[in-house]
Amino acid sequence: MAQEKLLHGGLQIARVLKEEGVKYHFGVGGGHIFPIMDGLGQIGSKMIHCRHEQAGAYAADAYARASGKLGVCFGTAGPGMTNTISGIAQAYFCKSPVLALYGQNMTFEDGRNPLQEGSAMGVVAPFTKWTARVVDPTLMCLYTKRAVTDAMTYPPAPVALEIPVDIQSKKNPASTQRHYVDNAFQKPAPDMADPASVEKAVKSLLEAERPVIVGGEGVFWAQAGDELKALVEFLQIPVITRRVGRGAIREDHPLAFSGRARGKILRGADVAVTIGLKLGYLEGYGAWTKNLRLIQINAALSEVESLVPSDMVIIANPKATLKQMLECARSMVKEAPKKEAWLKAVDEIKQKDRKRMADTVEASKGNKPMHPGWVAKCCAEVLDDSATIILDALTGSAYMTERFEGKMPGSVLESGNWAGVGHGVAMGIGAQVARPGKQVLVTMGDGGIGIGGFDVETAVRSKLPVVYVIHNNNAWMASMNIKVREIMPTLGMEENQGPFSILPTRYDQLFAAFGAYTERVEDPADMLPALRRAFESGKTAVIDAVVDDLASEISIISSGWTDEFNMGMMGWLDKETTPAAYRAFVSREA
After folding, report:
1. CA angle 38, 39, 44 (to 5 degrees)
2. Segment 355-373, tens digit of pLDDT
3. pTM score, two decimals?
4. What is the C-alpha separation between 365 and 107, in angstroms, rounded?
5. Which of 85, 88, 80, 96 is nearest to 36 (CA)?
6. With contact defined as beta carbons under 8 Å apart, do 410 and 247 qualify?
7. Rg of the chain's alpha carbons, rounded to an integer?
8. Are strands 24-28 and 46-49 parallel, antiparallel or unpaired?
9. Distance of CA 386 to the CA centre of its chain
């Protein structure tokens, strides 16, 4: 009888991930994690080796949100683990299923000041569903399977495992793995909503004069875009999708609204149904108008916002619930009541907002340095229906997100409430790996490129055709920088000296040295052709776009959902000493 093959701990972990269909992992290697790296390589998972551990976490996050599958990142002990924290936290707040694998010092070294001693249990755990230290080599498969299952269970979020290198290295037969059976787990059927609650919600929408539906991440993860589209078309209700849910219903659909039109439309609604969306800061916590009747539908009670009163709360799977709502509506009426006045009002708001954007472009199309609105207009024009955009710029993202119309689920990836910076380079890598050959455009600021820019080399080395557009304005937070200068004398700084200035940098020359396709664009007439050449190159590309740091039409502080909340962030301003121009700037409606 043949002796059973011995597998080290890294292979025990890897065989579970192979069962789960893991094909890629992102991170930076080190001695404390070599067995896991070896195991993943042996199962055929492709390693995208980054220049910084934060990039591994950001790339895994983007891969998960772009593919709808598990993202895997890894890091060695100590600093290899701590360097991933911003990326893990972003994945947590953006509801992204990521498995983080960390090496650790040998167990007998605990507390003896060994090399790179550090515990993920106390550092990473706050930004995960759970974090565990695995010290029993016969429980590798159990912990890995639970980690995958829990990371993917809605609401999805990261799970982290740290394994001492001596435990990773121990060899045991597969049969010695305890409490684990290959392929034993079967996904449960989607939870249906209570029929009486569905009927009540549908009746509220039918009777409303000015209803809206707001879809979120749950629509994406439940793959409920078709059901959402069918419901809003039958009921003829305006709809907006948010976060990774953007594009679940095409944003050029006649009933869809987005951008800065959203604030006025939501404030005019009398009934709003949120489905698969956790209302938070970026939505003004749902306090859109005092007389709004709010219905929240979500797969998890933890995702329901209680800061604002709700008429109803339904805990059920979005896809199943949307099907129930459509069937219920069709049983109640053959044709939904006409809400012509409301639809006309919504359309007028949308048309006015489109005119505002067009006027901005027209007024600034010849500007040198370029207006960020012009750059955004060119970017939106060159993208096709399968494009993914990744937002990582203060001013640039504000102009880009309102001009881009998502045509597929998960078409817009950003940092959510974590609101980080420097994530875009690595997220572009993860998105392109998840959607090979499709357009991926990352809008970067020159602040963010300074944090994550060297992973452009990772994209080049991995032959990933990602286009990075850098808004080069020699400043952090450019849309605010010029206004902040007005109060600089109170901080002891020189007149007209911005606190967030960056030395002029030729990013085209910098990244050309890596082998990327690069162009520097100073003339607005060259922007669109440069973008087309970048995509046609089939290479990692960097467009060094010189933009105006004085363009401050948009206040990023203003969320566009509620007026009261917009000013809350700026409560530190002293009305007596702060310049009137700056106060007017931060109080603008988005």
Report:
1. 95
2. 999 999 999 999 999 999 9
3. 0.92
4. 63
5. 80
6. yes
7. 25
8. parallel
9. 17
